[in-house]
Amino acid sequence: MMEDMSHYPLELTGPDVPMVRFMNVTKRYGALTVLDDLNLDVTEGEMVTIIGPSGSGKTTVLRMLMTLETINSGVIYVDGKPLTHMPKNGVLVPADAKYLRRARASIGMCFQHFNLFPHMTALENCMEGPVQVLGLSKREARERSEELLEMVGMIDKKDQHPSRLSGGQQQRVAIARALAMRPKVMLFDEVTSALDPEVIGEVTNVIRRLVSEHNLTMLMVTHQMGFARDISDRICFFFGGRIEEQGPPDALFGNPQRDRTKQFLSAVKEAD
Amino acid sequence: MSYPEFLAQYGGRYIDGALITAAQFLLAAALAVVMALIMGVMKLSANPVSKGIAVVYIEFFRGTSLLVQLFWLFYVLPLFGLTFDKFTTGFVAVGLNLGAYGAELVRGAIQSVPKGQWEASYALSMSPATQMRRIILPQAFVAMLPPWGNLIIELLKGTALVALIAVSDLMFEARQINGSTYLSAQAFGTALIIYYIFARFLITPFMRWLERAMARRLGRG
């Protein structure tokens, strides 16, 4: 059944256009509804952390925003423009590959398992997108990449291949690689989950710096509650494909209102 | 006739034959690699036409005998007005046949590249063609090199069949010399040794070198 798209605006206008808007977004895998009629706005420069039990749909939120997953209904807007759809004859239709390629360029993503390109050095990993996709000259791409590798503290390893780097080092290069595309929105999908405990700090410190020194819009999925509480502007607790509760970190962690939130937070605290 | 005398008399013809075999081998190998890449990628295409062409190609050339294919190209195509000289027919048949096996190696190697590599390059807004060229194929090459080493040696041995459409390769010369001297042990023994030298001392070291060079590019050297 085709969804009636006529009530979705072709473009968001007005004084308070959010950087990201999920509007009535539903995602199903067969009979399983992973996300159910999600509405979520993220304002420019905001750091939103998504927490929740596994299977609650939190990673799916990021993957839909990266357009790695298609959505079954609803529309996602980025910076006022539709991301998952494109305007055609005055109404939104599902975006084609070419539109998606342009639209998703404003989004950068870091993955749990880093996914660096093993046949390229750290520097080449960072230069690849700017050269191949943005059409920068090698010199411009190198300058930009070296600056970012400097920021994540990896400049002295720039000529190493990923196989020679620790998990924490690889993840820092992956952050630099994503930033080299100059995204408006950065997504961090459990970026510390695959790391040894002693190197988690070097990755979280980089993200802390990003939050304090740059006006990037960020969405993060993490199990590090302390870290999330420190740096987030807002926490969204997902349960069963819906936002069960959301609010500023101190309110949500300090004084949760919903029973499921309380249960989840106390279960996490015990596990710590 | 002693063996040194045999070599002194027929050595030149073995060298001529070996050069033709080498030329057949290089041209067939180049064709096989190109066909394997194109068809291996096409077999993974979402487009049913591309995929269909690749499936038909692979099924036909893997599922029927190389010798029959060779005869078919040489004796049957002229009936449809398509005539190639025997040298071309020889390496085209061998290259197309081994290319079908290679296509399956290419397909398997592409599928062995972790999904995360597709996702990371997609997240950098790469087009599918750029993903394939810059990210997936370079990693697939490393994975498929060892089985290609086998296939390339099979290909060398496959070129011996072109003697049967009278391409004057190593096998052809050996048969001719055997026919006129009846010195079968020397005639075919010499050919065996030359094939072995090609495989063991030229192709194998080259493939090993290629594997090492590729491993170095992954920083594993």
TrEMBL record, chain B:
It comes from the Bacteria. This is Ectoine/hydroxyectoine ABC transporter permease subunit EhuC. It is found in: Cell inner membrane; Cell membrane. It is a multi-pass membrane protein. Residues 18-203 form the ABC transmembrane type-1 domain. It comes from Albidovulum sediminicola. The chain crosses the membrane at residues 20-42, 54-75, 87-106, 141-167, 187-210. Keywords: Amino-acid transport, Cell membrane, Membrane, Transmembrane, Transmembrane helix, Transport. Belongs to the binding-protein-dependent transport system permease family. HisMQ subfamily. Pfam families: BPD_transp_1. CDD domains: TM_PBP2. InterPro entries: AA_ABC_transptr_permease_3TM (IPR010065), ArtM/GltK/GlnP/TcyL/YhdX-like (IPR043429), Ectoine_EhuC (IPR014342), MetI-like (IPR000515), MetI-like_sf (IPR035906).
